[in-house]
């Protein structure tokens, strides 16, 4: 009979939010691998009911301080679909530029300060800065540039206030948009160098077979538009999402797990999914970086998501640079007017961490009568648990501290946004 072993991580930094992981092993057999999110439910879907539709973008932004634009864009597009609002290309381009800013700041934060320390052997980005000051400084500057885009377009870097149903409350200053160009040129160059740097990291050998899911747009890398596709052949409209995906409650987590139906299989969303399925739609210089980074696409190793995320930083800078150079202040109003009516609409966009789907029911008085929000981390939770089950046999021969570290690194590969905060994950393994 084997002797039970237990090891615990009391706090895992470099993830957003608070959670726990419980693993029980009988010999070499993994009996339990539970990714437990224990933060209290925040009830945003209920908080939205009875609120005016024009309040929704500001309210859903509070779901996340790192990716508020994703929640705003998805909500706006869902409600605009319900009200048959056509916003036009000028608003569409500006929204894409705003979304680029969010991708840049979110991805740069994760790559440079949260994930790179795992591969370079440091406990944090700050201790890593002693030996790699240029890498950390570049990350801070990239994040600052992403925040600056959000300030210029959205009014401020956290929870932008210029986003509205039907467009924007005001056009941004044309000079301020133009002033972004020199820094975006630097950002693109730095991001391409980053791809080369992270491609040289040593990665564990781990290739779980998984279904990848993301949006695919007709003629551009996915941000705000597209059909939902998967590596297993799924190709549906965003309206059909509930027919193929289902959130289920589990006893060990306050967050719902999203699974494919009817199979009940987990699936993966995020940078690796987008690059595996939409790599041909990358802008030219980012596409060249993806081709020469040394990966054999499609990639299934979640640890190599840091390369995919770096490629997307380059893509976001390249897109932002193009949009900033092309943008001129339109003569028409920045917002399309709307009238209340009873209707329902849904939409999906690609948040930095993956597919984000929302649905809203509206009454005839301009109020929300129902809401549903499925965030990316909810969709990745079951996939993380499946990966842990598959990965644990590799690390069980290691001592407790090293096995724990490897599990932590696997979880961080997904950049889970457990809540809108940061910090703690507890890991308990019973052997």
Walk me through what this model shows.
The chain has 431 residues and is an alpha+beta fold. The chain has two domains: 6-40 and 382-404 and 413-430, no CATH class; 44-381, Cytochrome-c3 Hydrogenase, chain B (Orthogonal Bundle), CATH 1.10.645.10. It has 13 helices and 14 strands. It has helices at residues 44-48, 56-61, 68-82, 89-120, 125-131, 133-154, 174-178, 181-199, 271-278, 284-292, 305-326, 376-395, 400-413; strands at residues 6-9, 19-26, 29-36, 163-164, 167-168, 213-216, 227-230, 235-236, 245-248, 257-260, 343-351, 354-362, 368-374, 425-430. The longest helix is centred in the N-terminal third of the chain and has 32 residues, at 89-120. The radius of gyration is 21 Å and the shape is globular. The relative contact order is 0.22. Mean pLDDT is 89; it is low at 420-427.
Question: What is the topological layout?
Answer:
Elements (H helix, E strand, L loop, with lengths): L5 E4 L9 E8 L2 E8 L7 H5 L7 H6 L6 H15 L6 H32 L4 H7 L1 H22 L8 E2 L2 E2 L5 H5 L2 H19 L13 E4 L10 E4 L4 E2 L8 E4 L8 E4 L10 H8 L5 H9 L12 H22 L16 E9 L2 E9 L5 E7 L1 H20 L4 H14 L11 E6 L1
Parallel strand pairs: 2-14
Antiparallel strand pairs: 1-14, 2-3, 4-5, 6-7, 7-8, 9-10, 11-12, 12-13
């Amino acid at each position: 009979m084997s002797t039970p072993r237990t090891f615990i991580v009391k706090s895992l930094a470099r993830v957003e939010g608070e959670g726990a992981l419980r693993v029980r092993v009988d010999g070499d057999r993994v009996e339990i691998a539970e990714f437990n999110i224990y933060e209290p439910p925040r009830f945003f879907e209920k908080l939205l009911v009875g609120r005016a539709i024009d309040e929704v973008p500001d309210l859903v932004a509070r779901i996340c301080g790192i990716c508020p634009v994703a929640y705003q864009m998805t909500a706006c597009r869902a409600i605009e679909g319900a009200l048959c609002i056509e916003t036009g290309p000028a608003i569409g381009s500006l929204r894409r530029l705003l979304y680029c800013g969010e991708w840049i700041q979110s991805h740069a934060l994760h790559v440079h300060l949260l994930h790179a320390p795992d591969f370079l052997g440091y406990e944090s980005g700050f201790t890593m800065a002693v030996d790699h000051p240029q890498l950390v400084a570049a990350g801070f500057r990239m994040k600052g540039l992403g925040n600056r885009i959000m300030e210029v377009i959205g009014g401020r870097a956290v929870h932008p206030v210029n986003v509205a149903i039907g467009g924007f409350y005001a056009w941004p200053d044309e000079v301020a948009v133009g002033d972004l160009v020199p820094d975006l040129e630097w950002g693109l160059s730095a991001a391409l160098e980053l791809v080369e740097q992270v491609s040289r990291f040593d990665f564990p050998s781990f290739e779980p077979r998984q279904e990848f899911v993301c949006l695919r747009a007709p003629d551009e890398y996915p941000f705000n538009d597209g059909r939902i596709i998967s590596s297993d052949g799924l190709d549906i409209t965003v309206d059909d999402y509930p027919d193929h995906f289902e959130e289920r409650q589990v006893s060990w987590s306050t967050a719902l797990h999203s699974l494919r139906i009817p199979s009940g299989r987990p699936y993966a969303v995020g940078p690796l999914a987008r690059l595996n399925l939409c790599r041909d739609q990358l802008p030219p210089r980012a596409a060249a970086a993806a081709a020469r980074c040394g990966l054999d696409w499609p990639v299934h190793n979640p640890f190599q998501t840091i390369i995919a995320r770096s490629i997307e930083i380059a893509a976001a800078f390249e897109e932002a640079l193009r949009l900033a150079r092309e943008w001129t202040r339109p003569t028409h109003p920045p917002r399309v007017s709307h009238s209340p009516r009873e209707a329902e609409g849904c939409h999906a966009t690609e948040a930095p961490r993956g597919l984000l789907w929302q649905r809203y029911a509206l009454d005839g008085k301009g109020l929300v009568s129902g809401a549903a929000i499925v965030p990316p981390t909810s969709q990745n939770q079951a996939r993380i648990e499946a990966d842990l089950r598959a990965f644990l046999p590799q690390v069980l021969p290691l001592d407790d501290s090293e096995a724990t570290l490897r599990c932590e690194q696997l979880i961080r590969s997904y950049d889970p946004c457990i809540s809108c905060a940061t910090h703690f994950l507890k890991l308990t393994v019973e052997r």
